[in-house]
Here is the input.
Amino acid sequence: NKEQGQEKLPFNRKKPGAGPEYLEMWIQPEEVLLAGPLWVSERANPFFILQRRRGHGRGGGLSGLLVGTLDVVLDSSARVAPYRILLQTADSQLYWNIACGSSRKEITEHWDWLESNLLQTISIFESDEDIITFVKGKISGIIAEESRLKQSEEHVEDSGKFLEAELKMRRLFGMPDEEKLVNYYSCSYWKGRVPRQGWLYLSINHLCFYSFLLGKEVTLVVPWTDVTQLEKNSTLVFPESVRVSTRHTEHFFSMFLNINDTFKLMEQLANIAMRQLLDNEAFAADRSLPKPCKTLKNVSALKRDLDARAKNERYRSMFRLTQDERLDGHTGCTLWTPFAKMHVIGQLFISNNYICFNSREEDVCQLIIPLREVSIVEKADSSSVLPCPVSISTKNKMNFLFANLKDRDFLVQRISDFLQRTPDSSDTGPLSLTGQSAPTNMASCAGYECTQRRHHYHPDLPTARHSLLQLYHQNVAEDLGPKAMKEKMKVEAWNIHFSEFGRGVCMYRTSRTRELVLNGIPELLRGELWLLFSGAQNEMDTHRGYYGDLVEQAMGQCSLATEEIERDLHRSMPEHHAFQNENGIAALRRVLTAYAHRNPGIGYCQAMNIVTSVLLLYCPEEDAFWLLVALCERMLPDYYNTRVVGALVDQGVFEDLTRASLPLLYEHMQDLGVISTISLSWFLTLFLSVMPFDSAVILVDCFFYEGIKVIFQVALAVLHANMDALLSCSDEGEAMTILGRYLDNVVNKQTAAPPIPHLHARLTSGEDPPAEIDIFSLIKSSYERFGSLHSDVIEQMRFKQRLKVIQSLEDTAKRSVVRAMMTESAFSIEELEDLFCLFKAKHMTSCYWGSCSSASERHDPSLPYLEQYRIDSGQFAQLFSALAPWVCSSHTLTLSARLFRLLDQNQDGLVNFKEFITGLSGMYHGDMTEKLKLLYKLHLPQAFCPEETESALDATNFFAATIPQGKNAVFPQSHPKGLGFSCLSRFTVTMMHLSVVLDKVKDYRYYLRMWAMEKEPRPETIKDLPRMNQEQFIDLCKTLYNMFSEEPEEQHLYHSIATVASLLLRIGEVGKKFHNGSKKTDGADIQTPPTVPGVEEAHSGVESGEPQVCQEAADTAAPNEQDKGNMPVLSHPSGSSGPLQREDLSEDALLAGGIEQRQGSVLDADWSITFEQVLASLLTEPPLVDYFERKRDIQSKVEACKAQRVIERQISSDQELTQQAH
Here is the structure.
């Protein structure tokens, strides 16, 4: 059939980037034995039936309620679409399901297509069998064509059922296609004391719940960014439940099939949301994730992604690896340990750059083998004693034997594949720099001058090869005392360890290693072992030359970070001899500046200078840099950002540990407020600023091996040692003094090095100082009392505190914004808080539903809180439409765009909260003059978009006519700030005055005073506003006309605006006479003025454009001399009686003052009015005065804006129900 061949096939609709929408599609025809039960027929013809499932929509009675309840509880609604189309024949009781849809609109499109394209064709068939065969073939052809079109698109990993559930989530909660579902679970939501069985949907940005039981519907949507606490607990009322807390309410969910898996996923999603609040970066799916061999049932690609991220994070944390390391797999095995002559059971981990082993029992053995060090991987001979062994040899002649490996062949092949992609360590080159590229000109930065060398960092520098202590001790005689001998014994003990367990990155790490670290690392080996235990050695080995290139790029750049670095350079251990010369200061400057350039998100934070100074004492410069990288990015995450979030999180963890371990002391110190004061400095500087240096550096040794747990243990031990004294304290100062004196007397009696001055002010005073505390005794005590603390427990506590800390920082930021805006707007505190939340929510929308780069560009943490969050014109239009008191129907978007351009002072296409509130406050709380002034400005060229340039050119004409001419021309101070002359007037006038003055008085101070006066902002008055031409005035009248359409006094306002419009048109005509007359008078006395650079060109350019602008004006009637007699007063049109109705006034008559439009006429180019004239005319009409002076409440609009998502969802549902009713 030729006609059928040209028909448009209704393929399953699919938006770009979205998965196939299984509920809105044609399906392969399938038999249906019973068409009636559970379904209601809504449309029918001889061949097709459109049906709706009972329980969907209103009506249906008890059976509908039961079906709807079963669909929700059993999740059949995710598999059974609420609408379907059946194929039927007259002589058969068998039906065929050929299409399904999630809404009436979608299924109706399929129905209309069938009636338009198939109904007439199949009616000519004589056999029912032929009809069924033809329709089935047609539908199958449509599906095959769609499948062909999808072949070039991205492969869909998610199962059909999961995609159906994702579509259902978007439909139920009004989510866009960008919102991705991660997983969904059956559970109960406790609403009051009654559990509501339903489905919990966990998406990237929201927690959603839906339940429908016997007609009772429960819908819940909680953004993850609003969650303040997430806790798994078990109580008598809520058995084994998950509590989700926000600022205003708590939600309880229970009866999960696997509550641990659900809670773990909740934690991951909440962590992602907190990272969004910190960094304003959207979640990016891992595209490099290996594809599964087959589509996994009920497991989304995002869930696999998050699971892989969790495993990678734990793997990297366990072995101190870099952030780009990805775990490929792990398996159980045994490792032969030559030092113990036994096989150790554990787990073997394989990643793209490392082979790692961790024993089942803690501290028995840990091993890290970089693939760059591997020389041979081979399968050894298998035996009953040693089944399935694999031997791995390294370049430093170490051999490792793994056995009891499952699928040994696959493992060896996998390692071989990674080895082929691993570059040789000798060929490793510098990595591309993460910071901004440096400018070619190396400008000197404040506080120091760049050296004259070609390179800022090169191997000839003393600090490039030696630590500062090595340089400082070069000329010191060797100490042969008992302490020095003990130090040598420590070195010898480590050498024995190296010979037995290996040296370097492939060293066996055992309980013996831990014992040596706790006894103190000798000074000669401290730098080497710090690099090894922190993982910095691996990163440095794979990025040779990176630091030197980074220094070359960073040095010479001036920024906020470099200024802060220069300010703190001489405050870093100033009493130490190593930092009393240029070598130490220059090295510290290079390391800190290079890291600030590498990681602009952190830049520089106070306390980084102290830690880096200590690193430089024991390490060469490049080594110190990589140790700083390991500290800031892995071992102390988020410690040194602008808000020290990580330190605040660990401060909260420390409070929780104190409450659990020392409950009596915790209660007392909470009353004094001591814990939060002391712990921040302890954690930020790793006790270096509060403890004698020789003692604190022992803690740093332990920290690099054990991680943050040793800092918590020692902090708890310090509190426990001073418990009695602290319990007797009555104020914070006394408690601080006790702790300060105690830490000041923690000494290292084993050190052989010369005493290093303390980094803190000594608090010991009086004739009877406290007894000294040995640092090794303190560490031993901390392990004995609090050694059961594990890193997994700390990470769990960190997550809990991270939610609290980040939300608390957000609340603090909100309060700061509100306090700042209280003096600049008339909104109440509650209104400002609500408006800030709405504004921030729009910004966050761009983070998770917009592009990641766009979101990060809109957030600058270095700016004040008022200016950190910014929105674009589209988001501003949404807020304006929802919150603005001036409702102008279709004209609202135009007003919004113009106000956005007025508020966007820096013309970057974004508006911050301060600018947003400034515009909104003027509309709500300004007096009549301020409101009219804002409305007046919205119709001037400075607020116009590029499409409105024609009006802007007209405005230029009028301002050009007001420019004084002649040598005696006077430039008034109150000259309008419009286009044309306004751009040059004040500057030109000042320069002309200056040229005269400088000719007479050679006084630079006068020039500076005049320049300062020019730069000083002058408050704007109503006289500064430019004049308004006729087209702009008509546009203003249109806006007023639309503003009054929903007012109770609508008719009176129409009368008033008609009267005012007529009056202002006459005023413009009268003003035109004087204007033209003054131009003629001025023209008679014109003399050639002295040439002022730039002014003559500006004048000629403006005047020459006047005829062209008049020619291009819109085809709108303009009054002239012949029309003066036709200037009517717009009150009652001819023949009307009674009150003036809106429909009696044509818009042209109202807005143009009744002036007839003639073919080919143009606007009157000489007609103009001032703001004073507009204001005076409006004041003559009481209805207009009452309208603009009326106080308006924004709270109702704010509440409506908050509920907008629910309203939109209800509107879409109501539309379906309305269609159903018809």
